[in-house]
Design a protein that fits this description.
Layout (H helix, E strand, L loop, with lengths): L1 E4 L1 E4 L9 E4 L4 H4 L16 E6 L2 E6 L10 H12 L7 E6 L19 H20 L4 E6 L11 E3 L4 H13 L3 H14 L4 H15 L3 H11 L9
Length: 235
Amino acid sequence: MSFYCKQTMNVLGPLKYAFRISVVRPQIFRSLSTTLKRKDQPTDNSLTIKSQEGGIRTICLNDPKKRNALSLAMLQSLYEDLKNDEDNLRVIIIKATGPVFSSGHDLKELTAEKGSEFHEKVFSTCTEVMNLIQDLPVPVIAQVNVTEALLHGLISKVVPDDQVETETLKLANRICETSKEVVALGKRAFYTQILKDTKNAYRYAESVMVSNLTLKDGNEGIKAFIEKRKPSWKN
């Protein structure tokens, strides 16, 4: 069984067009060692392969011989592919070649011989990647194969292997149909409020919802819902 990984928060309840986000949990890279079966394996020798069509950017981890281990070079390559937030970018999909999505850190780089300075570089780069995934204004989807990840709350939907590509793109295209600035506001709000206690999280959400109503697309989403029509986004 395969899955795409997302987490959805609908802050405005029924006003789904005004404020909805779907984002990957960054810790998926630390938590999962799962398989991804694909027929169309890329042959490029780069550690990551980036492509973009329309508003959808796809990044493929491409070191199957090392089970796509997060070596320093892999992390640096992934960071470079993630960081460019182009105007037309709406969503990022991360997937992998070979039988394993990622086995985690490359243990050969964590030996005593490498030294503390190198180890610090590995972990600081990993932190930069995780923070970037969180800070990007667009949602990030991890397309991987599942074991027990659903039970641990790392994913939200499981589909058969032969449907994972289709379902991932379906989700990505749905995100492309939303307002980029509202999604960015929602994603930023999500990661801010989860660090707060319940009362302060609600108070923070109040201010975010007020801010949402100052956006043209925020108002358009509400009007579209009331008028029972498809919204026409400015961004």
